[in-house]
Amino acid sequence: MKAIEITKAGEMQLVEREMPQMAAGEILLKLKYVGFCGSDLSTYLGKNPLVQYPRIPGHEISAVIEKIGDAVPDSFTVGQSVTVVPYTNCGQCTSCKQKRFNACRYNQTLGVQRDGAMAEYITVPWQKVLKDEALSDVQLALVEPMTVGFHAVDNGKVTDLDTVMIFGCGMIGSGAIVRAKLRGATVVAVDIDDSKLAIAQQLGADYVINSKDQILHEELEKITNGDGPTVVIEAAGNPITYKSAIEEVAFAGRVVCIGYAGNEVAFPTKLWVQKEMEIMGSRNANPTDFEAVMKYLKQSSLDENVLISRTVEPEQAPQAMKDWSEAPGKILKILVKF
Q1: pLDDT, one tens digit for every residue, the chain (338 residues)
Q2: What's the whole-model pTM score?
Q3: Of 194, 188, 285, which is closest to residue 244 (Cα–Cα)?
Q4: Residues near 39 by Cβ (< 8 Å), separated by ≥ 6?
Q5: Cβ neighbours, 10 Å, residue 301
Q6: What would you report as the CA-atom Rg of the chain, rounded to the nearest whole angstrom?
Q7: What domains can you pick out in the chain, each with its CATH number?
Q8: Strand, helix or coil at 318?
């Protein structure tokens, strides 16, 4: 079968791999679309410390059930359209015991610690397969990347009384914008790319700020009457936005961190203490986040194609990844169509 492999940093190619062998309790999936994630870009650039090469990337999945193994519930049938929860969980660590499976100490994500879904076929334990015939193949491929932003909003305990500022309007930030609006919050989207800010407005952002062209603090002062946003979600992974999140969040506010900054971040502990702010991480997503995104995609009037920058064939994937690596700020989502 065809598979897309990151052979080493800066090198991606189309390869032939053996068909996966299906074990008891597993389902064989035929891939329809797989999205490139920011973690795949980091792997391609040689900046992902969790990856060993060669690696098949991909964990944003749209597929159909090709074959069903033994010991799989009868509710799964051949031909069903599905997506996949791409994380493992051990069930025994402190996170799992609290049912926070997304933060499992021993998690292995498809395409990161183990080979992913950029191939014609994969096998998956039935417990990780989510079926929904009402969603299109493209929508199913957008579920997982949107769940990460949904989960961050959940961690931030966002309500309709909050003003939520979101740093970074990529795919994860887009999910956070959608979820915060569904919670009834006032949403401020911040980025340095006007095209992404235009999409943020289509997703429901009440205010957009280009922090390259506008003075962030002054704009927030006007929007919040000098109080600052009650919740800040950092989805840019930049030391500058990490520091701004601490500086701009309201007193007694919450800062939720999704992005990985490339360098260590120093900030004044005085603000942390004086504001009595909560600073928390947000990793992956839980099953309820998947349910919420799937419900949103079924009920929303949004044309999900606004979230997709390019759709390519497997043969075009290496060039698409090279293009993304050279202009990362211009790409929201690349889908590979199998």
Answers
A1: 999 999 999 999 999 999 999 999 999 999 999 999 999 999 999 988 889 999 999 999 999 999 999 999 999 999 999 999 999 999 999 999 999 999 999 999 999 999 999 999 999 999 999 999 999 999 999 999 999 999 999 999 999 999 999 999 999 999 999 999 999 999 999 999 999 999 999 999 999 999 999 999 999 999 999 999 999 999 999 999 999 999 999 999 999 999 888 788 888 889 999 999 999 999 999 999 999 999 999 999 989 899 999 999 999 999 999 999 999 888 899 999 99
A2: 0.95
A3: 188
A4: 48, 57, 109, 111, 112
A5: 4
A6: 20
A7: 2-131+308-337 (3.90.180.10), 148-281 (3.40.50.720)
A8: helix
At 136, the amino acid letter reads S
Residue given tokens 């949403």 in the structure block: 187
C-alpha–C-alpha distance, residues 242 and 232, integer Å: 10
Note the helical H segments in 156-306.
Answer: 171-182, 194-202, 216-224, 239-248, 269-275, 287-299
